[in-house]
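Quick one - first record:
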Amino acid sequence: MSAKKPPAITEETASPDRKRRVVRQAIEQGVVAFAGMQFRCAVLDDETRVISGTEFMRVMGIYRSGALSTRRSETDEFYVPLHLAFKNLRPFIMEDAELVEALKHPISYREVGGNIAEGIRADVLRRICSVWVRAQRANVLGPSQEKIAEKAAILLDALADVAIIALIDEATGYQKRRAHDELQKILAAYISAELLPWQSRFPKSYYEQIHKVMGWDYDASSTARTAYIGKLTNKLIYEKLPPGVLDELKRKNPTDPSTKRRRRKPFQFLTNDVGHPHLQNQITAVTTLMRATPRGNRRLFEQLFNEAFPPAQGDLFTQLELEKLERPEHIS
């Protein structure tokens, strides 16, 4: 009497571990080109970047078969995806501990159209290609497998893990969403939800040093040139906070149409735990550079500032503004 053939593994008969696999959701999808080969890709709801496993097999020339499927055994201590389910690849899989660990956590995701797909993590793709390349070098591959290994070698040489992630972000459009999300995190850290009470954040020494660099006499009681110093302060201080912070400060504190001035000081909208410490550090650093600058040598200060805080912003002191300030009516 012949031995009874074991039943095929289905969703209902799969091991508890395989049943518990979370099906993630693709939030962005696209087609990415690596070394002239095109793959469907996605960014998942946990920000994992993946290549479609089915698409990878198609492009690489790995075809499904009954023999291939039987090598996905429940007795394996980790999940062997179809693109690695060859007995002659197993020793090369086991050589890579990080790959083995990744295979213990297979990824299933729901595509935007609703289909369930198997994903290859972007940072695992090169490790999979490496398995094929190392097997080829060991001369253990069959003729059809050799062709797969040749493509794997091309991919391996062409890509770095970071580049794969960046290319997927570009292909799916996720880079725009990521940039927006990162900006929101920065703004939440720097911009206070409530207006803080007024408290001077700029010491008199800061304004005194600006006057010295410009070659002006300093009068602590005078408000002359306040508008110009305000513009200069934006360039020296507020523009050196993370990108987007100054724009948000301006949005929350618009110019009054009647006075042409902002009703509040920008620093009143910064958070105490992150925004104000960064502001104070920048003020201190800039004041130190101005102290090191001889009186009236604004070009030397501009050079020192651009070297300390690259990239250079162009002229801090525009000729037109300086000519206006040097007219008699502007001299205090």
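second record:
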Amino acid sequence: MREAEFLNQLYALLDAPVAGLDAQQKLQLIQDICEEAQDINGQSRSLTCRIVPFITGRRPTDEAAHPGLGSSDNSSMILPTAQADENAAYILYSLGGLDGYTAEMLEETAIDITLSFCGTNASQTTIPIPGWNKRPITPAILEIDTTGKPILTPISLADASGRHLVVKLSPSEHFLPDTTWQWQDLDQQLQILATDGTDPFTFGHMFTQMLQVQLRVTRHKKPMASADTWIDICDTRRFGTLYDRIMDRVIKSDTERQARKAGLDTLDYAFHPWFPVLLMGSDKVGLYKHALIEDIVYKKRHLTDPRWLMRVGLYLEFLTCLGLFEAFKEEFGDLLTPAERAAFESHPFFAEVRQRLNPKGWRKVWKMKDIAFPKLGVPNTGPVSVLNLLEKRKAILGFLHVHHQDLKNAIELAGPNTHNAQETWHRVFRDAERAVLRQTPHAFPELTYLNSQIKDFILWHQKGKLDLPFVKWVPKQFTAIFGDQDGLFASACNQYRDSMNDVAEWAKQRHLMDYTGNECIPVTVSLLQAYMTGEKTRLERLQRRDGYSGQLNIEAELPEELIIPIEQIDALLSEVPIFEMLSGDERLQLASTARTISLGPMERIIIQGREGSSLFLVGEGRLEVLVRQTDGSDQLMDIKKKGDVIGEISLLTGEPRTATVRAIEGATVYEIGKQQFEPIIRARPELVEKLGAIMERHIESTRKYRESYETNLETLNLNQRIRRFFFGITGELKRGV
């Protein structure tokens, strides 16, 4: 940077408005920082504070057993009181520049934190949460206790260099009133939006808040360094409740009306054509809410980025339910309270939602509400005709058509996710399949009035297979009514897969999502397909990937994860060229801190173009390496198997990933990151030249695979890149430094 550019940027900073600082205070702050930047020898010194960002597939608690492989939470949840004990959000951060501080200087140095709610989309500027304005915190790290669980351990600033420090926040204590702060002390901007309680997560707040977290490092109470990040907080106590209003106040009422018209005293609302899609939809929401809680609260890894799914789910609930509320308002009255109606119609938070509502589309689907009562010449299924099953199928398809238009809008409002949306889409689709499979007996009470052959035909028939033995026992009047088309299971799941793929393609064209392959959800990730074709191994892998037991029993949770012996990982490492030169103790140290990752069928572990600083060692299974072509297609370049290494260039140089890698039928890989490898390189810098030579041979051997994409590795000597990444310099290093 030239002097003129430096001065221009400096004056621009001085002119920039800063919350809480006037012109004189800004000048004083710069003067304080300049004075602090000079140590006792007059040499320049800078203090830095960096928040570790959220990294897909990683959790903050990974830091305890795998130093350097943890990441900060980017989302949090409010749980019912009975479930709140283990609920915590973690912010990981690091401090730089402390090495030059004396013990006396460290005594004068402190860290504080400020927490502020900023509305559902960070558009509000509010004062900090009471008690959380520049609140002092103690440096701490995550460690493993004697039971194998991560715990927070305070440390001194003298021991903080080169480590990830941790702030632990309790949603029930810190984000809700009456424990550490009072409702009446909160910013008035937040209080006036409350519609159904005295907390900042009501309908008027769209059940969510974006929390700004600011960390500061001070000396003599003067700020020397600062960093901030955002956490999305969702209230699970309210998430999904809008759907309940439709069932309770619309479907039940309309069922009673139709029953009276047909001369019936009572009729179970499960016979209403809209009942199945609402029941299964609510169950699907419950299933992916369960997945969100597992990942966000309990730090499991069933979702790569739970925050995006949480936001898409919230926007989808508001778009669908408010669109339906508007469609039903004339016939059933307002399903919103007066306070909710006022917030919905006037507050800017709802502006984007209001513009995207589709009451006209929902009114069209509502015409598919008529129950098929008994009629002459048609078999009955209890109090209704068997034709009611067809009415339900028609309502499901009509509902999904409009609902998935709302889904497109929800993705638009949630914001782009071009790196990990595909695996999330897989999980949402399988949760829809689970909802269909486990709720069908409740959603279709008509089936209880049919014999097993007819029931199996209606549920399981596959189009084009009328010649199967069990079909011959089905009365012709039923095959005539239902025809040669997929049964309820297959039609519901296939329609949902087709619709979700259509949404994903739409989003990809608008750079809101991306995925590998010709379609976002291939049939190979379908539970139902694996079950119907007898692929037990695939079914088990899909179930286990989502946190369930291997059988198609939705209630059975996955047992504790299998612990891989360190010796097994060490044996694999000894066969890898870049680790062969290490001593046995050095390899064992890497093996003991490697992170084990289980991949489901078609799940990606590396995505082309993403930042990376780790490698993956294949323990089990096969993975395919694909490279995005200029026409947008993904070309298969290689197959990786047990003992192979993926991503070593990123580990050694920090280069972005140059290909996408995904499991074929499922796989187990072990991740080793820069922070685990760095102490070895720093202790033995002579390894740089050997590693560079190995990587040059690797690049040359794979050159034919890399012709379709660019890499910058040839533009700078590999040895220099490795030195820059691990030592922060590009010049030659002296042996032993």
